[in-house]
Amino acid sequence: MASASSVQLGDGLSVSPLGFGGMALTPVYGAVDPAEALRTLHHAVDAGVSFIDTADIYGGGSNEELIAQLLKERRGEVQLATKFGLVGTPSAGYTDIRGDRAYVKQAVEASLKRLGTDTIDLYYMHRRDLRVPIVETVEAMAELVQQGKVRHLGLSEVTAEELREASGVHPIAAVQSEWSIWSRDVERNVVPAAAGLGVGFVPYSPLGRGFLTGTVDAARLGSDDFRRKIPRFAEEAADANRGVVAAVQAVAAELSVAGQHATPAQVALAWLLAQGRRLNLPVVPIPGTRKAERIDENLGALSLNFTTAQLEKLDAAADAVVGSRSADPNWVSEGRE
Prior knowledge:
By secondary structure, the protein is of the alpha/beta class.
């Protein structure tokens, strides 16, 4: 790890201790106000959250275009990550995954144009195209580094073996996968591989797509809400999974009584940071939000400290989780390990 104000992932990439997941600023969890979204992005950078994560498919490219408005004024203050590989949109559905050389070149040019920048700090393969050897995809990505269009490479939802193969082609700065108190499958194989290879870890959905905060009622999700497609948000599964939320809320209450004034969101994020320390792995969660005040709340996680008993309580909560974290397990590392 680097200084208190930054974390060093792999390949020498330093980023803020928390990142910002941009997908929430497109209509995957309901309608979004573009003006409020831009204000939220500016507030994130003002507050010290300079690691901004997006992808070419979020909003069909509109998320990159939104972030371009931030970059126009503040490019030098931002570590920018985006992704390629998925074809379609989260709300309408994905139609394909592509990792062929021609598509890598096509995708980066389109992202650079939408983002209004010459260089992407961290370029991820969003999902694995099983029709193309991962070595070929990473070779095409490595050419982008040589051309100066990309500074560092990342992989999302890869298996441990895929990570090892890719690392043999070019240094990998980060693996991005879902990881949280209720999504711990990556700890079996991917996390140890990343730690051994010196690759940082960027957990997406670190708040369980909002569920771990205790503010999400799965039964009341809108018809256009992406979470309706995820098995663990189905009504019966969600009812069973409230036990995980109860454990997070209990620890938040204990910390608050002891003077740390914690919220469930802060507890969930602080648990991930504690996991990174326990597993000797640089971990930078990227919670997303539409509201500026949530950014300030999330940053409070950086100062929380747990007792051993509290960590054990949070660790045990995952054992009772019902339902897969993905509508198609083969699209995430869990389904291919």
